[in-house]
Each structure stands twice: as C-alpha cells, then as structure tokens.
Specification:
Rossmann fold, restriction system, MeTrfase_CN4_CS, DNA_methylase_N4/N6, EC 2.1.1.113, SAM-dependent_MTases_sf
C-alpha cells in the first residue's frame, strides 16, 4: 500500500491547490487568538489587530483574530467531503490588557464559526496539558477573592460537514482493516484524555522566530484522531501544518495527507523528521498490539472469555468488527517533489510531495 503526502507553502486562507470535496478528515491546531506568541502573526494578516492590542481593546483584537481563522474554515468547508470530519485542537487564552485580566474563550468562538457554516458539532474532547509550575492558581496568592484558576486543558472540537454520515461499500476492507481494538475505543472515545501529555519540541532552527513558533501538539493526538475518524485510503488535511506532526501521524496510520504552511523553514526541516518515520510507525503499531495483549491477559485473568480471534494476529478480540484489524508500518519514504513550484496554483506556491510505502506490521 502506498500513501501520498503533499505540503504547500502558502496561505491557508486560500487553499487553491486543493480540490473541492477531496479531503475526508481535517486535523489541525491553529494559532490561538490572544496568546501573545501569535500576536505578530495575526497583526501581519490584519494590522488593525496590532492597533487594538496597543490600545488595550481585547474584545476587538479577539474577534479580528478569529475573523482571519474564519477564512481558513471557509476553505476547510469547501475541501471536505460531505460527511467529512473536522477536528480542531484549540485552547482558551488568559490575558491582561489595560490592567484587566480575563479569559478569551477560543473554543466557543470556533464552535460558533463551524455551526454558522452548517457543520454539526459532535461530542468534543478535553485533554490535559499540565503547566510547568506546581502552582494551580494565578493572581493574589492565598488571599481571596482575586486568584484565578490555571488553564491546564485544551479542547479537541469535532464537527461533521452536514448531517449525513459517510457511507462505505458493504464489508469494505479499507474500513475493517482500519478498525481499532475494543479497549482502544473505550479509551480514545472518552471525552477526557488525561494520559496525553504536552511535549516541548526540540527542533534546531537558524531562525529564532521559527523556534519561538514551533508549538506542535503531541503526535498521540493527531494519531488517535486519524484512527478514530478515517479509514485507509482517506486523505487528512492540516491547514496549519507547522512542524508536520499531523503528516507524521498520517504516515504512521497509513493515510494520505495534505498540509499548508506559511513558513517554508518548517517544511525544509521535515526531511530530518521523515528519517525516523519507519521506526516510529513500527513502534506505534507494536505498542498498540502489545497493549492489546496486556488487556487480553487481564481480561482472561478476571474470568472474562473472548468469542473471536483476530484474522491477522495471534490474539483474541472482543468484537466481530475487530477481527479484520490490520496494522501497517512504513517501509520507505520517497521524495517526489522537494520545494518545486506548483504550476496549478495562481500564487505559484512551492509544493513538497512524498510517497510512503506501507507493509503489514512486522512482529519480529
């Protein structure tokens, strides 16, 4: 099995290189409005944002920042298939402007944006992202009432384009082979993820600005979401590609991917991350299988039998739908286009393209 992974260097507010209704799943983490590290980016898109921040008008700045994200959500609506899923990882912001401290509810504004575009909200996920400090408050210490709760969670907002679910041909191998284990379903489809930790990206950049803006989410988040909401053969979009974590997850999960990124410096560094993908994908697959076998041992020890056997692995499974599960690993990655000009786009943005060859997970 082969998958194709494309990255376009350009502005996600206009994804001209991506066809209408060509993407089954979007998984992304946009820049969070009202987080200071993103002020310069948003101001570059709309100078009025910088003026609002300078004058202490947080409400105006907040709405103007989201107005820029709205243009990306317009494009996302266009490229998603009917019934396609969008997973948006976003955190709220706390900030003081003009000596007034408050929270800016990014998740609520993104929810409003997708509903206004006809998306149906699905149950969302909270994942805990611990703060470095042991202190669990901000403000005036031990004396009430002017201390504030520390935000230690982010949201994964989940939306479906339209009210109808995607349909598949009966018994489609690409769907049943992409099944997850019963115990994975119970863990992944919980609305609170406490075992996923934030990670500091140790990346080497000559450009200090790139280093400051390399705030990627943990690989576990896009990997889970891709497994939960797509099948083999599907294409996953990340319009805020960053360091390519969603593409790495798609490679490990055996899906195609497409991304858009403003900073070519991030894409140029992706070759270094690609070298680790074969080993990473094998490790991810083996870990899933090992955890399942540990679950089997515990369940049998509790006196609970299994009715079914997996078709491709020497292990029992709980449900009939799990029997066809077939994990894959990346055997090799070829660079098809490395920063070539994209002739089909009016902006002539650079395109990077990779081909990953997948084989059944090796157990030796």
């Amino acid at each position: 099995m082969e998958t194709i992974h494309r990255v376009f260097v350009g502005d996600s507010r206009e994804l001209a290189a991506i066809d209408d209704s060509s993407v089954e799943l979007a998984v992304t983490s946009p820049p969070y409005p009202m987080i200071e590290m993103w002020d310069d980016l948003f101001t570059g898109l709309d100078p009025a944002i910088g003026d609002a921040l300078a004058s202490g008008d947080g409400r105006t700045a907040f709405e103007a920042m989201h107005a820029q994200l709205d243009l990306v959500w317009d494009e996302l609506e266009r490229v998603l298939v009917d019934g396609g899923i969008a997973c948006i990882n976003v955190g709220d912001a706390t900030r003081s402007l003009d000596d007034s401290f408050r929270v800016y509810a990014n998740h609520a504004r993104v929810l409003e944006a997708f509903e206004s575009r006809g998306f149906d909200p699905l149950p969302d996920i909270l994942w805990r992202k611990p703060a470095n400090s042991a202190a669990k408050f901000m403000g005036s210490g031990m004396i009430p009432p002017n201390a504030y709760v520390t935000l230690e969670h982010e949201y994964v907002l989940v939306f479906r384009k339209g009210s109808e679910r995607r349909s598949f041909e009966p018994g489609a191998d690409r769907r049943y082979e992409a099944a997850y284990f019963w115990e994975e379903r119970n863990r992944w489809f919980s609305d609170v993820w406490t075992e996923v930790q934030g990670e500091l990206q140790q990346l080497q950049f000559e450009d200090d600005d790139l280093r400051d803006r390399s705030a990627a989410y943990p690989l576990e988040i896009p990997y889970r979401l891709i497994c939960m909401y797509s099948a083999y053969g599907d294409t996953v979009l990340d319009p805020f590609w960053g360091t390519g974590t969603t593409t790495l997850a798609a490679m490990c999960a055996g899906r195609n991917s497409v991304g858009s990124e403003l900073e070519e410096g991030f894409v140029e560094l992706f070759d270094d991350r690609m070298a680790d993908v074969p080993g990473l994908s094998q490790s991810v697959g083996r870990t899933r299988l090992e955890r399942h076998r540990e679950f089997v041992t515990r369940r049998l020890g509790e006196g609970n039998p299994f009715e079914y056997e997996a078709d491709h692995y020497d292990t029992p499974v709980v449900t009939k739908m799990e029997r066809g599960i077939r994990l894959r690993e990346v055997a090799s990655i070829d660079v098809l286009d490395g920063g070539v000009e994209n002739e089909n786009d009016d902006e002539n943005e650079d395109k990077y393209e990779y081909r990953a060859t997948h084989v059944p997970l090796s157990l030796e």
